[in-house]
Each structure stands twice: as structure tokens, then as C-alpha cells.
Design a protein that fits this description.
39% of the residues lie in helices and 18% in strands. By secondary structure, it is an alpha+beta fold. Strands 10, 11, 12, 13, 14, 15 and 16 form a seven-stranded mixed sheet that branches. Helix 17 links the parallel strand 23 and strand 24. The chain is globular, with a radius of gyration of 33 Å. The protein starts with a helix and ends in a 9-residue tail after the last helix. The chain binds one RNA strand of 87 nucleotides through helix 7, strand 11, strand 15, helix 11 and strand 26.
Amino acid sequence: MAYDHKEIEKLAREKWAVLDLYKIDLSAGEEERYYLLVEFPYPSGDLHIGHWYAFAVTDMYARMLRAKGKNVFFPIGFDAFGLPAENAAIKNGADPKEWTYKNIERMRGQLATMGASFDWSKEVVTCEPSYYQWTQWLFAKLFEHGLAERREAAVKWCPKDQTVLANEQVVDGVCERCGTPVEEKRLTQWFLKITNYADKLLTGLDTLPWREEIKEAQRAWIGKSEGAKLRFSTRFNLVPNDGVDIEVFTTRPDTVFGATYIVLAPEHALVKNLIEGRLASLTNAGEIEKYVEATKKKTEKERSENKEKTGVKLKGVSAINPATKEEIPIFIADYVLGSYGTGAIMAVPAHDERDREFAEKFNLPILEREFANWDTISGIGGERTTQYRIRDWLVSRQRYWGCPIPIVYDPEGKPHAIPAEHLPWLLPTDVDFKPTGKAPLASSQELKDRVTKIFGEGWTPEYDTLDTFVDSSWYFLRYLDTKNTNNFSSAELMKKWLPINRYSGGSEHTTMHLLYARFFMKALYDLALVPVDEPFNERFNRGLIMGPDGAKMSKSKGNVVNPDEFVEKYGADAVRIYLAFIGPYNEPRSCPWSMEGVASMRKFLDRVARMVELAKNQSDPDAFKYFMKSNLFVSITRTLKKVTDDGNRFKFNTGVAALMALLNEFEDSQNKNIVEHNGACMFIIMLAPFAPHLAEHLWEELGNHGSVHQQSWPTGAIIASSEVEVVVQVAGRRRGSIRLPSETGEAEALAEALKIPAVSAALAGKEPKRII
RNA sequence: GCCCGGGUGGCGCAACUGGUACCCGCGCAGCCUUGAGGUGGCUGUGGGAGCAAUCCCGUGGAGGUUCGAGUCCUCUCCCGGGCACCA
């Protein structure tokens, strides 16, 4: 180890702190602004390699932009509410608040070792009352404008975490967090009406320069289907005109002639009424009820995995196809979902694979017919409609460690937003954490007393807390004005700094956080609270760092890479540069961690230090003149262009490769006793974003003043070499190469090329077409 | 099943609008350094034939366009991700 990384890195960070290098005055600066954002971490207590990949590599971009004269805002904070703190409280009796703050403190230290150029003066911590006050204020705004509402709904319930989950937090029928199969419950809960924005969220995507795969994932999640609603009248107890209408949604109203039966989802409201005999007497009500109960027991996953069609005919009722006037049977079957469309379909076995399967099993007619045109469809009462797959965002959580929902209920049970003067609506501390399925806040006497005191006898508090995704849906607005006590952010600064230029994060957030934050922005835009309706201009989903065995890191596999160990052994700069080198950052892909790889990055940095050692002792007064004429100077300008271009594209892997190639050239030229002090300085400036600590040290070693991180990115012109190498191809194959002065004409060059034996042989007497 | 990505040496990868395929690094081999080992340094490293200059083959597979294809077109196989009994 040629240099003492511990000492150098410590000194460099001290120097930056003294110079207060990364503090930014957001209201000042004529330079072009650049808001660079990375998803803020959850304070789990340990900074893992994924955090390094997220922050250290993005920091390179921040440093490069600053050197290029941009006014760069690169903030950091903590997404501090959430289940793990509470689980620690349940398990070890810890105070969730203390547990969280202890972890934040520890992670601040770990983040500091990264050498990232965060502006810590604008840190945001979502569990601070000064932050969640505004989460509550924004929720109240949404409530006032009908975008937050309380209603009973079938919700996903995690029996282990004892809380409801958002649709997005259920993956393949299990809790995204703990893997427990979710249950369905009917509960009265708070929803944010993201469905109101389904279309805006969809069309907004067209304006964003995101990778197609991210846009496609969001489009699929929103799931727009255009079709029509049709009404089928029914006959109860075989008495004409006795029934109610069944509304169905179809994307193929033109196939209505082929509709030979109706299917209701077991959850359909009509089914319940029929079983209970309120509308008509079914001759097989018991059988129907059994089927409905059986369906309830299945998880959504089981329901979708079992492709074998099941169902029961409703005996005693039938429907009329409005196009054919034929009487057709009604079934209930679990292949129709209560949560989509109207919960009822017209089955067209001739045109739908699922309907065909069902029809074959139940011996129902399959009718190939003519197609209906729109005149016919509207003639039978069809209306064009659009359906979305996306559901409203369920934000109630029966957990403690979250932002209290700022709602109180009057004696009639009607919800009211807590007025702004009572915000922050503090999270009570006299709470029993044991999960009972009831909200822990219900055990707080202080909360009840508080409500009575402020609002009067008979008023009651809301006991649920908000999904933490609400906290993180606007944190990037707060970063701009963290100390504001009068508003959630500054209108002026939002106008100057939004939208965020580049946002990077994990691909798992594509249909969660990223969608929620876009919804928030659009809703706040419509309330005239923010100046733009899309928060993020560019978005990068970063890849995953795998274990050395190529498998996803997990404690059970024992392949977890602890960055602290490598920082200890090789230094933060080596870890940073390895992460930059591992692959292209702008394409999400998984890369295995390589022990030897990190070691080799340290070797590279040691060689750089040695090169500087030689360069700094340079004493030849003519060295500069010599250097300017050298091939090395040409190489430096070429490398500069490469590192600059690659940096713009987030391709740090090839940027580092170019620096390595340049170092090889430096070493070759040093062997010839050419020592280039100026060249070394340029090299160090280019190295600075990647290895900021070592670059700072070597910058001083070379006798420079100030910080290398305050230097402007060089914009050297490319010096053309006087000779160029020309490759000669015949029939698309390389036949040789010649070195010619760059001003050589075409005819001359052709004549030279023909002198190569392989060229004339390959041409075999034929005339050369052209020179390329 | 549908929709996105992506398949290049033993490995991670590189190759701007079609123009020297494999930059840079890992690994491996040989040599130097060392008492030995490691570290460090130098050289070599896609496959095949040849003493050699050199030649042939080579970017998942099969065709095609082109003077020229990793790159463009058609079909196909495999891997990763998203959605999925969504009517």
C-alpha cells in the first residue's frame, strides 16, 4: 500500500469541512442550476453496498457538474418512519424514536466516509415534527379538495405485521415486506384518490425522457382499457321485467351478439342480495353461498394460479342479451374479479379464451356471429368508458411509528381535518406497542384528552398513521426549504429548482414511490401549491450489486458484502472507483462484487500516487514546452473528451477505463524521463470526481493551493496529431494500414494504399471503388 | 400468455450516426524481485493452422440488405424485468 488512505481521507474531509465546500445558497447563483436527487435511505442502522452504489456513484456526477460550473444541489435525508423501528420496540422494548435516531446518527457517520458532497445543512428527517407537520398539512389540503376520503373497502391485510397494505405492497399475494400471505378484510380506511389522476399520470409519461421500460411498467400498472359499459336486464323467478339491470364492462362491445351468458364476480353486490333472498328466491342459494365463501378463503394468488374454471349457475334468474333479446343464463365464477370494471362480464366464448374454457366446461353455446357497429351498440344503451387497473392508494396503517393522520371525528362521526394551528399533530408517546390488530394509538390516553381539550366532548381522534410512502412523496420539495415554519416549502425556490433534473433510485419503486410522488405533484399542481406537475425530469433505475457468487446478497446465503470492511482495507476511493468501473450506471443490470476487483482499483490509485511522486520532483525548466509537444498532451486532451462525454451519459465505467489507459501512457513516457507536472495536474482534476480524497491529497502534493474540487473542469481543445493512421479495407476486411500526413489528398492516399501487397492481391486487378 | 430490456473471450465489460470486434480491468501463463510465499514489476493471453511472415474462423442460432453488420431487416432460441383469469 503506497499511501495511507485512512490519514489522507480523514484530512481531505476535514479540509472540505473547513472550506464548507458543499454548502449551497439555493437563492443565490446565476449559474445554471442542477437538482440531483437520490432516493433517501431508510435508517436501518447499516449502510450497505447498495447505498454506496446509489450515493457514491451519483456523487461523481455531482462533482463533475460542479467543476463544469453548474450550481448543484445534492441533498440527503432519512425516510425515518416505518415498521422496523416499531418491530424493534416490540422485540426489545426499545423506544422507536430513540432506535431511529441512533441509527440515523450511525448512518451519518458511514455516509461521511463515502466522501460524498452532500449539503448536510439541508437534511430532511421525515419523523421530525417540523417535517411531518407539513405532511399533515398537505394531507389536509388533499382532504379539503376531495382527494383524500374515508370509505369501507376490501383491503389487503398482513396477519404478521397486523396492518393493511397498499395494493402496491402486495406482491404475488404476499406481503412485500415479510412474505406472509395477505388476507382480505372489509375495513373503513383512508384512501388518496390516485385514480382521479390515472389519465394524467399516463399522458404525463409521454413528456418525460425516461427509459421506455420504466414508462412501460407504469403504463401497465395504471392499466388503461377502453371499452364500453352495457346493461343486461334480468328476469327473476322467470317473471319478465321483474329484475334489476346488470352492468358489464367490455373492451369488445362489438361482440355483444356472441354473449351467451353473464358472469358475476362472487363479490358482486347483487349476489349477496340474491343469497339473502331480498330480490328473488334462488333455487340454489345454499350452493351459491358456499361458492362465495370458498372464494373468500382463497388468496388472490391462489385464485389466479388456478386456471381451471369453476363457477355456479344462478338458478331462478336469467339475463336478456340486449342485442339478440335472447334469454341467457347468469353464473358466478371466480375468474371474474370484483375489484375490476363492474365486477360483471358478458361472456363471449367465441372471442375470449377464458369465456371459451368456461363455456366448454359448462356446455354453454359458443356463437360465431356478426359484429356490432357503434350505432347498434349505442342503440342498446352502450356507453363508451375507460377502465383503469390502478386502485386508489390506501394510506391508513394500524401501526405506531408513522405520521398521525391529521383527522378528528365529531360526535356524529364525521371526519374533520385538524386545523393548521394545531399542527404538528404530535405522535403520542403513551402507547402500547403490542400488535393487536387495533391501531396502537388507540391506547393513548393523552391523544384522547388532547382531542377533547381542543375540540370538545364527544370528539374522537383518528388512530391510524399514514403509509410512509406519503412521507416520501414530497420530501424533495422540503429539501429546498427545510427550516420553513410557515409553509411546506418556498414558492420562489420551487420555481427556481423544479423539476428535479435527475432522480436515481431502485427499480422496485417504479410502481410505488415514483408513481405516488408523481401523483402528489400533479395534485399539488392543481391546487396551485407547486409550479410544475411532473417532479422528475430524468429518472435512472440503478442496477443491483450481487454477492461475489453472482447471487443476490442475503444473510442466509452468507454472501453479503460489507462496504465498511473494504473501506477499512482499501479506502473509500477504491470502493468508489470500483463501483464506477463495475458497469454502465445508466442501465439497470446486476453486477457481482469482486474481491480482486476492488483490490485492483487500489493498485490503480497507488500507481497514480507514484506517478505524481515523479511529476512533483520535475525540475527541468523546459519540461512544459516539451510536454505541450508530446504525444502525451494529445492523449490527455483525448481522455478529457472521453471522460467528459462519458460522464454526461453516466458511463463512469468507460470514463475510468480511459483514465487507466492514460495512466499507462504516463508510465510509458516517464520511462523515457519525460516528467509532466502540468499533465499530472490535469490527470488529478479528472480523477477528482471518482477518488475525491486521494485527488485532494495529490493536488496538494503537486504544490497547488485551494481544493482540487474547486477547480474548473478543463475544456482543452483537441490537438490533432500531424500524422493519421489510415486503415485500408477491401471487401469489408482489413488489409493493412498506412501512416500518412493528415493533409494527404484522396488520390494520393489511394496510390499509397495500393502499394500494400495484401491490398493489391485482394483487389485481384479490379478497380478500387472508393476510399473511406 | 402479453409488454419491455438484454445475449460479445474463462469473468466484469468496451466499440459515437453501419467502418480495425474485444478498450480497461479481473483471471490465467511465463519471466524479474524474494531464502520461500505473498506484495510489487515486466511480457503474453478469442479459437484454429503454421518454425515464421501469414491465413482461416469468430459478437446465442438461421436467413437477408450492404463494398462492409455486434450494430439495420425477417424468423427463431435463451436470460432478466414488468403485467397477468383486468373482460
